[in-house]
Amino acid sequence: MGPDGGGASGECVSRRVALIAAVGLLVILALARRPPARPPVRLLFTGDILLSREVEVEIKATGRSPWAQIAPFLSGADWTGGNLEGAFGSEEDCRTTGDAPCFAFPDASAELLARAGFDALSVENNHAADLGVAGRIHTREVLSAAGVMGADFEHSPTFFRVGERTIALISVNLVPGTDGQAHQIPSVALSQKLRLAHTLADLVVVSVHWGRELTEWPSKEQKEAAEWLVEEGADLIVGHHPHVIQPPDCLHGHPVFFSLGNHVFDQRDPATKLGLIADCTISDDRLRCQGAGTTTRRGSAVPVVTDTMPSEPLRGCAPRLHPSLVIDGYSVCFEPGSATTEGKGLVLEGRKDGVPPWRSRRVDVVAMEFGLATDSGPPLLLSLERHPSEMDGEVALRPHVYDVGPRGLIAKWRGTALAWPLLDAVIDEDGELCALHRGDSFLRPDPSTTVTRTLHYRWNGFGFSATKDSTKDTACRRSMAELTG
């Protein structure tokens, strides 16, 4: 090889090194621009919890918490929830009749829940009204004083900040209790709660009391209800009431725990001594769940973890979290501390890099969706809110339309309720409005009427005009008929 050949080879090597260095620099710059990965978040959901009868006897006899052995497992999570089967208060206030059991808990036992690591408990089940309406209110007050959120249907969705994630919890009861009350699936009210949760949260969790006691397989009704919940925006479903484990499933890519069984309970049937904890992790913008089995020895209500393994149907079941609401570069969510369950509404907050956040007035929001189409310009935000009006003398549902800017929500329209009193309104795939109205009118209001009607509207820049499109009117009527039965 001549001297020129060696020089050419050295030049090629130099160019190759330079190319590699340039590529490396581009990779470094790309990684520097990429937002840092959010740390994983671990969520736990337990089964039914009882704090009276033999459970209360065991606590008094041993002087020990039922969670003495399982507390390290629970404390390893970022957030823990479950289902509280009963109410705090005195047995003297029981409203049950006949042989129906009444689950009345001593107020002091709420501290055991807090020390065990519970952040929230669903108080929506067939025993929630065992002590009447006052007992329902008192239960949430006692839990709140202990630092635990009591989640019921009326105040759902309840929002939580867990790490850098926003979780929405909706509590539903399909089993009639002492007061004979139960919710329906499908329903207008539940659809509205799911839409609000989906708009403002990264993850929507539905805690549902359903099914038949001591039945180890989900019923047809449970499966149909789960289908509807997932279609309407539920990301994760955790079920209770059968008191035995029912196998979890992956429904359209979403984890469904039909029944977690008992967590802390005093039933004696061997199947009721086994429980399941939904052990879920958020990472890489996906939710992945597995089951942690628990067992309770005969004659005790103290659970211990037996194993943690992915349930076969949940392998590969990893729904992607939905992106937060962003309008004109502002990330819209609830203000920390405003997501109370006291019926005072939410304070919305908008954040944008390098710009001071704006905050809205406190709003009694029932439902919220982004995507209302305009003739020109970006889409708008539709909010269904409860407000009084001199027109009908009611505190009722009113549609509001907002744009978003540096100063926050900019009201584009604050209507009374479109053509007739309003029950619900949904933005369709074309960005237009499908509205469900009561069958009465503003001139002759009758809030008790069960008659309904639908109408399809288009935003005209100053308000809403009926589209007078028979195809869209028919589609609107059919979609609302699914909610009203």
Structure description:
By secondary structure, this protein is of the alpha/beta class. The protein has eight helices and 30 strands. It has helices spanning 3-33, 53-62, 71-75, 110-116, 132-145, 188-200, 220-231, 470-484; strands spanning 41-49, 79-84, 87-88, 104-105, 120-122, 149-151, 158-162, 165-173, 203-209, 236-240, 245-246, 249-251, 254-257, 259-260, 262-264, 274-283, 286-296, 303-309, 325-327, 330-334, 346-352, 355-363, 365-372, 380-388, 395-405, 408-414, 422-427, 433-438, 452-459, 464-466. The strands form seven sheets. Strands 1, 2, 5, 6, 15, 16, 17 and 18 form an eight-stranded mixed beta sheet that branches. The chain has a six-stranded mixed beta sheet with strand order 7-8-9-10-13-12. Helix 6 links the parallel strand 8 and strand 9 (203-209). It is globular and about 70 Å long.
At a glance:
The chain is α/β, with parallel strands linked by helices. Helix content is 22%, strand content 36%. Strands 1, 2, 5, 6, 15, 16, 17 and 18 form an eight-stranded mixed β-sheet that branches. The protein has a six-stranded mixed β-sheet with strand order 7-8-9-10-13-12. Strands 19-20-21-22 form a four-stranded antiparallel β-sheet, with no helix packed on it.
Blueprint (SSEs and pairs):
Elements: H1 3-33, E1 41-49, H2 53-62, H3 71-75, E2 79-84, E3 87-88, E4 104-105, H4 110-116, E5 120-122, H5 132-145, E6 149-151, E7 158-162, E8 165-173, H6 188-200, E9 203-209, H7 220-231, E10 236-240, E11 245-246, E12 249-251, E13 254-257, E14 259-260, E15 262-264, E16 274-283, E17 286-296, E18 303-309, E19 325-327, E20 330-334, E21 346-352, E22 355-363, E23 365-372, E24 380-388, E25 395-405, E26 408-414, E27 422-427, E28 433-438, E29 452-459, E30 464-466, H8 470-484
Parallel strand pairs: 1-2, 1-15, 2-5, 3-4, 5-6, 8-9, 9-10, 10-13
Antiparallel strand pairs: 1-16, 7-8, 11-14, 12-13, 16-17, 17-18, 19-20, 20-21, 21-22, 23-24, 24-25, 25-26, 27-28, 28-29, 29-30
